[in-house]
Each structure stands twice: as C-alpha cells, then as structure tokens.
Amino acid sequence: MIKRLATGTILGCAFALAGTYSIAAKAQQSDEVTTANDEQPKILFSADEVDYNRELQTVTARGNVEISRDGRILLADTVSYDRSQDVLTASGNVSITEPTGEVTFASHVELSGDFKEGIVEDIYVLLDENTRIAGTGARRSGGNFTEIAKAVYSPCKVCEDDPETPPLWRIKAARVLHDAKEKTVEYEDARLEFAGIPVLYSPYFQHPDPTVKRQSGFLAPSFGSTSYVGSFFELPYYWAIDQSKDLTLRPIYTTDEGPVLASEYRQRFDSGEMEVVSSVTSDDTDDFQGHIDAKGRFDIDKTWRWGFDAEQASEKTYMSRYGFGSPSVLTSNLFTEGFRGASYSRVDGYYFQGLKAEDDRDTTPIILPHAQFHGQTAPAKYGSYTTLDLDALSLTREEGADSHRLSAKAGWALPYIGSLGDVTKLSMSIRTDNYMVSDVSRDGQQDYNGYAGRILPLVAVDWNMPFVNNQGSYHHIVKPIVMAAWSPNGGNPNEIPNEDSQSFEFDDINIFSHDRYSGIDRAEDGFRTSYGLEWGVYGEEGGYTSAMFGQSYRANKGDTFEEGSGLEDHLSDYVGRVTASPNKYVDLTYRFRLDNEDFSTRRNQVSAGLGEKETLRLNLDYVHFAEDAGSDEFGQREEFYFRAERQFSEFWSGMAYSRYDLDQNDPLEYGFGFVYEDECFVFDGRVRRTFYEDQDLGQSDEILFRLVFKTLGEFASAAGL
C-alpha cells in the first residue's frame, strides 16, 4: 500500500501539470489532455485556477484540484510541479484513491520526478476492511524502501463521540519499513495496545505486505493445558516451498508427555492435489508414537481419476490424547473410478484400524480388491431401460473368515404414468452371487470352507398416486404408496458370511426398498409388500409440513431378519416421520418406529429448532432405542441433547448445552460459552465437562478460549482442569 502511495498516482499528476502548463484553465473547468506520446494514458484534470511561471518553470493548480489517471484520483487544495528541480508538491487536504479502493490522506506530499526519493507528512491510509495505518511522516529512498515514522496500525473503528479514545487494539511502532522488492513490512520498537494499555512488546517484528498471499515465517503461537498432556506450547512455522506446495511444521512441547512434532504438507499438481497431516512423539518408555492422515485426488483423463486416503495411528487413544480428533475407526483406501454417461466404475482396496477397546487388528478385514460397475441404458420403447451391476471383492483376515465374492445383477424396468396421474414401475432382475470362503462360523455346525452361491430372481412393482389440492397460497398433496416384490425363499444360506450387511435399521427411508439390506452378503427373500401414505402442505413463502406413515408385510416369517429388527414377523412395525417447518422460527422433525401390536415405541428420534438467535434459539434432540430395537451398534439407549443460543447485544452472544443419558440418569457432557465480536476483534470463551471414559482416557474438564485480532491473525489457548 505504501508503495502505491509513491507511484503512478502522483506521477500522473506530474504529467498532467507538465503537459498542461500552456493551457489557461478557467474556474471549475474540466479538460481532457493527451500527452505527446500517444501510448501515454489520458489524464483528466480540473481545478479552480492554474498558473504557469515560465521563469521559474513551475505549474501551480489551486482550489479543488482533482487529477485522475489510470483509475487513481488525487484531490488537494494546491498541487505544483517544479520542472527545473523535477519536484512535485501537493498540499492541503491531500487524498489519493487507488483503483483497489484504498485511500491515502496527507497534509503535504513532496517527491522527486523519478519517485525514488520523497517525503509525505501526516500520512493516514485507509485499507481494505476499514483497516487504518497512520504516521507523522513517510520517507521514500532508493526507489525501493518506504519508511513511516511513529506509525499506528489498527482495523478498529474510532469512537464517534470521543475520537481521542484509543481503539480497542492497535500496534504502535517507532519506525515501519516497507521493502517493495522483498514485499515485507518491518517494525522497530513495536507494541500491541489493548484499550490503550500496552500488553505486548517486540523490538523487531516483520510480516509480508498485503500483496503477498504466501510467505515463509512463524505463525501465531498457542499454549494452554489439558488433562491428558499437561501444559503445552506450540509455535508453528510455515514454509512456502514454491507456488505449488507448502509445509507447516508444528512443534509442540508438553510437560507430561514430552515434545510432539506435527506437520501439514500440501501440494497441487496439474492433475490433482495432495495433503498429508502427521505427527510423531516419544512416550515415557522411549517408544515412538504418531499418526498420519493423508489424502490425494488425481485426474487421469476426462473419464477416470484415482486417489488415496491413508489413516493410521500408533495407539487407539493417541489422537484423542494429543487433540488430533476422536474417530472410532481409521480407514485407508486406494481407488480408481470412472464416470461416463449413466455408467460408473470403481476399483479400490481398504484397510481399517478400529480404535474401540474391543477392536483387534488380527480380526480386522483387509479388502483388496473391491471392483464395482453400474451401467444403465438410455430409455427405449415405452421408456423401458436395462441395468447391469457387477461386483467383485476379496476379503481376508489374519484370524477369522475369509471371503472372495463375484456378483452380477441384470435388470429391466418399465415406468408408466397413467391417465389419472398414477405412477407405476415394473422391475425385474436376476442376480447371482458366487463365493469362495474359509473359516465361516455356523451355529451348531463346523466352520465352512469351500464354494457357496445363490441365484436370486426378483420381480417388483412400485405404485403411487399423488392427489394435489390448491387452496389459496397453500398446496396440499396426499400420496398413497405401495410396493410389492417377490424373490425365492432361502436366499441366505449359512455358508455365506455376512460382512457388508451387519448394520441394519428399518425406518421410513428404506421401507419401500425392494431389498432393505444395504450390502450384498444378505438378501431379502420371499414375497413382501409395503404400503403407506405421504401427506404435505406447502406454502408459497417456503414453509411446509409433511408426514409419512407406513408398514410392511412379509409372507415368509423366517430368520431373514433378526429379532427386534421390526421385520421379524409377518407384519412389520409401523414407521413414520413428521416434519414441520412453517416459518424460520420452527423446525421440527419426529421419526418413529412403533410396535405392530401395542403401538409401543421401539425407536423415537426428535429434532427441534425453535426461535431465532437474536432473541433465543433452542435446539433439542431426543433419541430412544428400546432394548428389543434390534440395533447391533446400540443397545437400549435414551439420550437428550439441549442447546440454547442468544445474541445479547450487537457484540455479545452466548450459548449453553447439555447431553444427558436418561436411561442411566447420568450426564454425558455439558458446557457453556460466550463470544464477543466486533469489526476488529473476537473473543470466544468456553467451558466444557465430559464424563466419557475411553480406555486409558478418563473424564475431563476443559476451559478453552480464542482471541482473534482481525487482519493480524489468531491467538488460541486451551486449558483442561
């Protein structure tokens, strides 16, 4: 910015005055002048009065002087140019507006014709986002360095009622040096003042100038304390290696666990990008510990791309202990995939690391390869189309069952829209699954080794008929839905292991699916039908209320679905959903599963958002799984989550939250926080207490806060009690 102050703006003024010295300007006259060289840009110039002294070779413009060139505008009371000394002078309410919007104010400007030397008195600069820098004077030397004396920098607004009151924060320095070639800004004897009170001092401070987007250097430090590592201090260093890659080193010193070196490497290529986050440390037994989280995505051509994800940790609780996240499983994946029309192909491999206490690496599967293909033809006569799905998978373990699978499914579908608006779709398919397995556990039998397979034809019909009624500004829609499907019984022989269909939940989302299993290893068999009703009211302003209710019937009451799944009997449980969002103040969703005999709740999920933050915003979540709900992931569970937010004033806001286990009558976590934010500063404080216990990590109390000096950077701290 300082560089722009002493460049083409004032140079344009010199050309304007020197090129127009023979013109007698009239009061409030505006002329357009073109220099002798046709390649020079046009200059617009106006003033109340213009004088030319041939003996002294000076041009002087007085009164409302305005000169515009290359998008820059100079305003001043008086502007003069001394041709003999090659000196340009502007004084009295001087302002220079740059094309980018920055404005420089000064009482007096004096520069040499080549602009390598010069002075500016009482400089005041208004940058982007209302950031300001001021000084008693500025000096330019050597055509490269600009020095500002007794400078003050701040993005904070000045109090209109009392302009003498110091801003919320500012930086004062005895001297500021801007190096236009190296694009750096250096401070000498710099101090940070908060509400006029000095809080930090540095004899020397440097940062890139505003034109620099990336430059190597130290980042803002952070420090604090946690229950797991004690007190810590972190001072990151950013290394801009070149235009395509950079590296951030994050050395962290901890009092209880020793030093940690974390890093983040990023690189962009012509065909993609890569990011690697990692850390390493030595524990109290001198064993190395660490983690890696890497991701890459690369285009091969317009159809194909490949990529990878690499996630590993040396210990199950390492990432939680050092604050690198709390995932339950780490997934490493190498893949290539292609998209063409309605077809999709993918080949990949997976390696998993479970971080739960019961997870064992020896029994965790390795999948290599897993190949998939889905293809669909364009609509043919009557709108019919065919599909083809192929799937090949090889799954192995150090201990436990191995499975090698090849599946193929060919399908045909015919959609039809009747004269009454009813929509019918006929689907037929045949699927074959072939397995070579080993060590497959079977109840009451020896483990199975060898070939297993099945052929599953499927015939299905989907039908719905929407009824629409418009009443003023509201639209009512009632839509009955029916699905019927058939495939032979006995589609799940016990020689086939269940690897990809273990997580199952019967709900309003999959009730009308032909096969409600998400994977291939398990298949829904026999005759089944689902029926339900959807209803909705929609307003022109965007508000709506909708509901859905349905049930399924299965002719075969077998062991396809487990007890508690909701599909173990002929008649399934009832599932449904109610959503109400009539305006921006109310957002309610209720999902449920009711017992098919006594309508007792087996699953309840409620999410509600009420009010607005300016007054009071409440977010409520309730979840209830009955003991016989059939969930492999959760047993009996009843939890309640509450969060309240309030904007107390223009700058202050607060929030409080709590998560409670209603089944055990124990809190899981709770906390509160508050935020102050204005145009130049953010203070965010939070208190949190958790009651979770994860292996060797127990309960924790934490205090976290964040200080952000806008346009400078961020200072963050965390303390655990």
TrEMBL record:
Keywords: Cell outer membrane, Membrane, Signal. The keyword Membrane applies. Its main location: membrane. The keyword Chloroplast does not apply. It is found in: Cell outer membrane. Residues 289-652 form the LptD C-terminal domain. InterPro entries: LipoPS_assembly_LptD (IPR020889), LptD (IPR050218), LptD_2 (IPR045659), LptD_C (IPR007543). It holds the Pfam family LptD_2. Residues 1-18 form the signal peptide. Residues 190-281 form the LPS-assembly protein LptD central domain. It comes from the Bacteria. Belongs to the LptD family. Involved in the assembly of lipopolysaccharide (LPS) at the surface of the outer membrane. Component of the lipopolysaccharide transport and assembly complex. This is LPS-assembly protein LptD. It comes from Thalassospira xiamenensis. The lineage of its organism: Bacteria, Pseudomonadati, Pseudomonadota, Alphaproteobacteria, Rhodospirillales.
